[in-house]
Design brief:
Blueprint: H1 4-26, H2 32-48, H3 54-66, H4 75-92, H5 100-119, E1 125-126, E2 129-130, H6 131-141
Antiparallel strand pairs: 1-2
Helix pairs in contact: 1-2, 2-4, 3-4, 3-5, 4-6, 5-6
């Protein structure tokens, strides 16, 4: 028989290490499947374990989104942070408190910057799709 209390205590024991490992993966330019897995894993860890590092993790993701690097090589990192924040907000709801205000503000700025790139004809093509379009699509799909 499956003992959920044993699983919960195992996660709580190694939660800090798990969170550090997962948040480090955000900056490793993960692809779409990895981004979704990271988001699910982080959200699940905070659901099953303690939430003591939740706001630190959200702040790390916000810092990635806030970064002004608009190069195509940084886009997967930014998208990973967006997916992780989306996963945590989706699964944890009220537990994230009022941190959503800063996140929404950062996401709106990121979208505006993406729109500026489109209107200024500064298109960076990646597999036939411009980078700002990828950002908008990822925001919608995550």
């Amino acid at each position: 028989m499956f003992d959920s209390s044993h699983l919960q205590s195992d996660i709580k024991e190694s939660q800090q290490k798990l969170i550090k490992q997962l948040t480090n993966q955000i900056t490793e330019n993960p692809g779409p499947p990895t981004r979704k897995i990271l988001a699910r894993c982080l959200a699940t860890i905070f659901c099953v374990g303690d939430t003591f590092m939740l706001f630190d993790t959200i702040n790390k993701c916000n810092d990635v989104i806030r970064n002004r690097d608009d190069s195509p090589s940084y886009l997967p990192t930014r998208l990973a942070a967006i997916c992780c924040i989306g996963g945590m907000y989706e699964k944890l709801g009220r537990m994230v408190g009022r941190s959503y205000e800063e996140t929404i503000s950062l996401l709106i700025k990121a979208l505006r910057n993406a729109e500026v790139g489109i209107t200024d004809n500064q298109h960076i093509r990646q597999n036939g799709v411009t980078t700002p379009h990828i950002l908008v699509l990822e925001l919608i799909l995550c």
